[in-house]
Specification:
The chain has 332 residues and is an alpha+beta fold. Helix content is 30%, strand content 26%. The protein has a seven-stranded mixed sheet. The chain has a five-stranded mixed sheet with strand order 1-2-7-5-6, covered by helices on one side. Bound molecules: magnesium ion (MG).
Length: 332
């Protein structure tokens, strides 16, 4: 481990995982934590429990703001365990001088997003710190959800599964980057920031055989697939040409030398579904506007256990590694 904390250690990728395992897992070690799921499954498998802090800059961006993000982020992690979000806490750290109007806007966004999820805030905390001690506002939310479908786990993916994504990739990362760098967009690129509870509920109601779900936030789809390959001891073979990326996001990636699979999303999830239910799952997802381009991107094999392979349309193969380095700090 390095002597000091670096920005890369918050990237949702390799350095971040090293920080978590060498410092936090080492100290807090327990069976629930070590499952490394999107949310902890507690209380005899009946409840999902998760927490997340939000530091995004800028606070307001096309497609959302820090308030919407703070509710979506935690509710989506609960939804990824097959849970219906119920109770949230909301904790804010505000910089002295922050405009009250902006705070009202942010809290209003939270209110709207809570309604979409059918969840309520039941506890909270506010701290105000002197000017310069925090950048504008940081928010933490913690949530509890009732598990509607037990047994969803990123540790159980097998050769019987196929891997789907719910929509085109990289919108949140590309939007934040463009907003921060003042890149003038001639397109209407927006963050994908959205609650996923409704889609997950629909998949459960249709009785789709779900093995695992994960929202592709920091580290993007690359991080999710690499985590899954390791946790389930499988090889994931991704068909490069099947990865959905919009023209706008592709343009920004070209400009910056990023890959869309590494960019953060805030309303996009990866699904491991039993093979026979692939079409059923896609049919359910296609009914929703923000998953109308859901598609299968990968198969599971035993070729290189613990690894993700990218198959190009020319027939070449390369490993898709866990993202590393300073990606985009303060993306969420
Ligand atoms: Mg997550």
């Amino acid at each position: 481990m390095k002597k000091q904390i670096t920005l890369a250690m918050g990237n949702g990728g390799e350095e971040n995982n090293e920080l978590i395992s060498k410092i936090f897992y080492k100290a807090f070690k327990n069976e629930i934590l070590q499952k490394s799921e999107d949310a902890a499954v507690i209380h005899n498998g009946e409840l999902a429990f998760s927490t997340d802090s939000f530091t995004v800059s800028p606070l307001f961006f096309p497609g959302g703001d820090i308030g919407k993000l703070a509710v979506c982020g935690t509710c989506n992690d609960l939804a990824m365990m097959g849970a219906a979000p119920k109770y949230l806490t909301c904790s804010v750290i505000i910089e002295e001088g922050f405009p009250t109007r902006d705070l009202e806007k942010i809290v209003h966004s939270m209110e709207q997003e809570l309604a979409i999820n059918g969840a309520i805030v039941v506890s909270g905390d506010t701290k105000v710190v002197p000017r310069g001690n925090v950048d504008k506002i940081f928010i933490n939310t913690t949530g509890i959800g009732e598990i509607q479908k037990k047994g969803i786990s990123s540790n159980n993916i097998s050769l019987d599964d196929v891997i789907l994504v719910s929509r085109d990739l990289g919108r949140h990362g590309a939007t934040i980057f463009a907003a921060r760098e003042g890149i003038e967009l001639t397109t209407d690129l927006q963050s994908d920031c959205a609650s996923l509870t409704v889609q997950v509920q629909a998949l459960i109601e249709a009785d789709v055989k779900i093995t695992a779900l994960r929202d592709a936030t920091r580290g993007g789809v690359s991080a999710v697939l690499n985590e899954w390959a390791k946790q389930s001891n499988i090889c994931i073979e991704v068909k490069e040409e099947s990865i959905p990326v919009s023209q706008e996001v592709y343009g920004i990636c070209e400009m910056l030398g990023f890959e869309a699979v590494n960019l953060a999303n805030e309303g996009t999830f990866v699904l491991a579904i039993k093979k026979e239910d692939e079409l059923k799952a896609l049919e359910v997802l296609h009914k929703f506007e923000n998953s109308s381009n859901a598609v299968k991107i990968a198969e599971v094999s035993e070729q290189y256990v613990g690894k993700v392979i990218l198959l190009s349309s020319y027939g070449t193969k390369r490993f898709l590694d866990m993202p590393s380095g300073e990606l985009l700090p303060r993306i969420c």
